[in-house]
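Q: How do we represent a protein-ligand complex in a form that can be generated token by token?
A: Start from the inputs.
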Amino acid sequence: MLTEWAGVMPPSRLRIITSFLTLSALSDHRADANLSFLKFMIDEFAFDNTEERRKNRQNGAGWIEVIVGSMFSGKSEELIRRLNRARIARQKVQVFKPKIDARYSVGEIASHSGQKHDSKPVTTAAELMAAIDESTQVVGIDEGQFFDADIVKAANELANRGMRVIVAGLDQDYTGTPFGPMPHLLSIAEFITKIHAICVKCGQTANYTQRTVESDALVEVGASDKYEARCRKCFVPHADAPTLHE
Ligand SMILES: [Zn+2]
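Then emit the structure tokens for the protein with zinc ion bound:
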């Protein structure tokens, strides 16, 4: 039995079990109980085996993580944090953003606080899929709300191939309506992180993005001069004058 497990168990754990087996042999009347305990221990160690877990991770299915919130809630910052941690673990990472988001720099995703990560601008979900390298382990997608509906199918497909897919995006537009493919992505995701900003009017938890300039366009790409984070009470679902700060 021990030789059978020797290949999947670290030598230190094998030594512990061997000692236990020797002790068990000394006491015949408790042999059956000891044997079942030994079997339990072997199962536990095999389950906890790092090499086995690594194989499962490589051969098994991936998953989808979605990070949502209003503007100024720190979504891109959280996405960049997760991507950097994957990079530190030497995982192959690919990052995409829709071409519509022209702020800061074309080849990067950026948070309002100034953190950056390399990214490839793509126009459609199909273009994103075509650019995926099969050896990629982690796929990051920023501004997910601006993608077409096929991004939902794409995220599922990549997770089915074993990749970890992380999508960040606005869950609601400036009218408080669920934004583009985000509600669908939230439905299919294994893990959801909803983060919040602070209402600039009253200091409560902000769940809404308030547009502060007159415009009928759904998308007004820009930052603090056109939008504010507001709480449920202070949010007005149409253009409103910006809050004046002294
Ligand atoms: Zn408020």
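Helices lie at 2-6, 11-26, 31-47, 50-59, 75-88, 125-130, 150-160, 182-188. The longest helix spans residues 31-47.
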